Amino acid sequence: MKQSKPITTVQVAAIMASTIIGVGVLQIPLFAVRGAGSGAPLAILLGVMVSFVGTFLIARLGMRFPDQSIVEYGEAVIGKWLSWIGSVGVIGFFAILTSLTAREFGEVVITSVLTKTPLEVTVIVMLTLAAISTRNDIATFGYIHLFYFPLLIGPVVLIVALSLKNADLINLQPFWGNSHEGMLASVLTIAALFQGSFIITVVIPAMRHPRKAMKASMAGLVISGGLYVTIVAATVGVFGMEETKNMLWPTLELAKATSLPANVLERLDAAFLAVWVTAVFTSLYSSYFIAVKELSKLLRLKDHKLFTFFMLPGVFAMAMVPFNILHMYEIIQNVGRVGLFITIAYPGLLLLIAILRKKRGESLD
Questions:
Q1: Model confidence over 222-258: pLDDT tens digits?
Q2: CA triplet 232, 184, 172: central angle to 5 degrees?
Q3: Which residue windows are transmembrane per the record (predicted)?
């Protein structure tokens, strides 16, 4: 008798949300304002809609092959060699994404908190923590995300709610934006911040009820997307679009400008950074888990623990490639947009061919 699968529907929604809400939360208002001006919340909504398409395709694929990961059912759909190319692309992309997330974390920490700490130390500490955590099985992976989920959502919602008392609705008008020249680029950049939804490909084979994967993944996407929309609306409402454009990390500035009632805490940036570190960890954990887990599947290994530290030097080396913060964000935007082909176009192609060829895995639900 097969062992019962450990991941519940609630855990899937928590995994999705905590993976998407990550390091990008600090800069997402800037990305949106640059392309849409006062229509920044609209740009976020459009980015969420793009990510809905990708999540829908990935969830449909996983429900069609409920006992296999994308590496495994890719071979059944398009053949071994074409699938190998696609799988290497997925693994390489999430390894790069992990490195860039760690680098961005390091830049924020040495700029805002530990100003005398070398960048390399902060990056390697976070990567090592992710590598150690990745050695756990999928059940522990689900428990960790579920545990941290309320710790992420609660404080951020509180900060946004408190900041709204300083917001001015005129800063958000016109709601459709001032200029649409950079709207498309901005929407694609924002959609790239939701690529953590790809974690569903790893989670579905361990779900107790794979048929509920679509509902759970969409719930996670709605939670994270709604949070991002409110953060951007609050930031632009408080500072205005022109001032927001001059900030490197607008969400952090929003936390600095927010206080608890009766001035119990005059600035909430320290509390926000503590929550943000947790968000970075959960995102980094998921992207590293995808890369390691899919690599083990590609090489037909039963255990992924072999690669948790094997990949670490390469990921760290990639994290040190950007020359400075501006170069890092330029790379992040370019890699994120290219990654949309891997996280949306590739699953879409697999789903289309699977339907045409009538390929389907064994239903275990």
A1: 998 888 988 888 888 888 888 888 888 888 888 887 7
A2: 30
A3: 12-33, 39-61, 81-102, 108-132, 144-164, 184-207, 219-241, 270-292, 304-326, 338-356
